[in-house]
Amino acid sequence: MDLSIRSIQSIDLIPRYWYNIVPDLPEKLPPMLKSNGTIVKPEDLSLIFPRSLINQEFSEDRFIPIPNELRELYAELGRPTPLLRAKRLEEFLDTPARIYYKYEGVLPTGSHKINTALAQAYFNKLEGVERLVTETGAGQWGSALSLAGALFSLKVRIYMVRASYDQKPYRRILMHLYGAEVVPSPSTLTKAGRSILEKDPNHPGSLGIAISEAIEDALTNSNTKYCLGSVLNHVLLHQTIIGLESIKQLELIGEEMPDYVIGCVGGGSNFAGISYPFYYEAVIKGRKRDLKFIAVEPRAVPSMTRGIYTYDFGDTAGLTPLLKMYTIGHKYTPPPIHAGGLRYHGVAPTLALLVNKGIVKPVAYHQTEVFEAGRLFAKTEGIVPAPESAHAVKAAIDIALEAKRKREKVVILFNMSGHGLLDLAGYQEYLEGKLRDFEPKEIDLSYLLKITTKL
Q1: Torsions phi, psi of 184, nearest 5?
Q2: Closest by Cα among 435, 319, 418, 450 to 369
Q3: In 10 A of CB 326, how many CB atoms?
Q4: Distance between CA 368 and CA 204 in Å, rounded?
Q5: Strands, E, within 213-355: which ranges?
Q6: Is 442 exposed, middle or buried (0-12, 13-18, 19+ CB in 10 A)?
Q7: What sections of 178-293 are H helices per DSSP?
Q8: What are phi and psi of 45, to 5 degrees?
Q9: Residue 293 and residue 412: Cα distance in Å, rounded?
Q10: What are phi and psi of 336, to 5 degrees?
């Protein structure tokens, strides 16, 4: 058997530590701020997060231990996930590039999101929390936290962006099967939701609005904590299990550092998960300083490619601290594209800093070309990518074709962060010629400049 096709899977490959990129960033990460401009202290977050996660959020330690009980649960649910070579895709493209992908879709909920959902549920349970609330876009994160809540006997309520609630009923059903309550957002359950519905009863929702509702819920109900699937440091470091495994797996099949590492970006968790450990190995340790990091977003929600690098709220109602990030504004309502997990107005502060320093290159695609890439990948490799993951597939194909033109034997690695078997309605629209592209709505950032001026 050609060992370059599939890496050996052994539980010994599951790392014992998460990687925290914060101490290795090219400059100090800008702090979270309150709306009055003062710096957020760890104790300020205690109403919505447990102490252990707050400690991780503010940690300057490069490596943070994974508890043995949690590591064993990772193994029970399918880690390490496979590292596969897309040889049939390579042959179809007639490219000299070698294309590898880390396949997180084999996990029970079909995506990488379970990596941090388990961790967040675990640490909340240790501190006696009984109920968790969160938001979800496409439903991958909501599904993951629903399962994690079931495994740790925690009640879970999910505020699901209304556009995805309607587009993706099977994600919603999966959450119900795990025992979670699923609420279309904006909803009438919160002040934030009601204020949106008063202005527009048919509002499609956004991740920013759903975050506002979930945080308000956590703040107004006892023994309840908020969980989130992306953006903040503690979430991203949980996902580095993906890249840490990938480094070992590439070595086992005789590959060194790749030339490109690719991931799609909504808030940044799966991109960080695959890329941050490679940043440490390639850039900080000096194994391959010219490794290229490609972050892919939808053209309809162009946070990195058309946004500005400034302080903004993480949610629509302004309940979160201000984060310095690339943003198109917390009041922006994204078009109802099928990649619901990428319909977020900003990105993780650590990722934004890397983009600002030119270490990570952002690119953006229309959803029709993304679905075409997903179709091609399904035909050649047999796996239907989630619409979010298909963005990374599209970038990998473009780089492989460029390598063909230049006759370069580059190594490409991307994160296949989830399967699309619960997203077939989007693929049906594509196959029937009904899928359409959305240009960004008018991006008005004048109110952000007013916020920044006050700071």
Answers
A1: -70, 135
A2: 435
A3: 29
A4: 21
A5: 224-226, 260-264, 292-298, 308-313, 322-327
A6: exposed
A7: 191-199, 207-220, 233-239, 241-252, 269-279
A8: -100, 5
A9: 10
A10: -80, 60
pLDDT of res. 7: 67
Where do the domains of the chain lie, and which CATH numbers do they carry?
A: 11-15+64-110+235-454 (3.40.50.1100), 38-61+112-233 (3.40.50.1100)
CB proximity list for 420: less than 8 A, separation 6 or greater: 374, 384, 385, 386, 387, 389, 390, 426, 427
Q: Indicate yes or no: pTM above 0.85.
A: yes
CB atoms within 10 A of CB 131: 17
Residue 421 and residue 2: Cα distance in Å, rounded?
Answer: 29
Single-letter residue type at 194? R
Which residues, in sequence order, are CB contacts of 155 under 8 Å at separation 6+?
130, 131, 132, 149, 181
The single-letter code of the amino acid at 83 is L
**CB distance 289 to 280 below 8 Å:** no
Count of CA atoms in the C-beta half-sphere (13 A) of 131: 14
Report cis status (omega within 30 of 0) of the bond before 321.
Answer: no
Helix (H) or strand (E) holding 374: helix 367-381
Our CA dihedral for 214, 295, 422, 139, rounded to 10 degrees, sits at 0
The first and second tokens of residue 213, run together, are: 């509702």
* Cα 321 from Cα 231, distance rounded (Å): 12
Distance CA 155, CA 87 (A): 44
Cβ-contact 348, 314 below 8 angstroms: no
Lookup: tokens for 195: 């204020």
Distance CA 156, CA 55 (A): 23
Cβ neighbors of 430 (< 8 A, separation 6 or more) are 368, 371, 372, 375
Residue numbers of the chain with a pLDDT score lower than 70: 1-8, 340
Which pLDDT value is given to residue 428? Answer: 94
Angstrom CA distances, 362 to 268, 355, 410, stand at: 12, 7, 19
CA distance 311 to 13: 38
| pLDDT tens string 165-185 | 988 889 999 999 999 999 999
The b/e string for 194-213 (b: 16+ C-beta within 10 A; e otherwise) is eebbeeeeebbbbbbbbbbb
Give the model's pLDDT for residue 314. 87
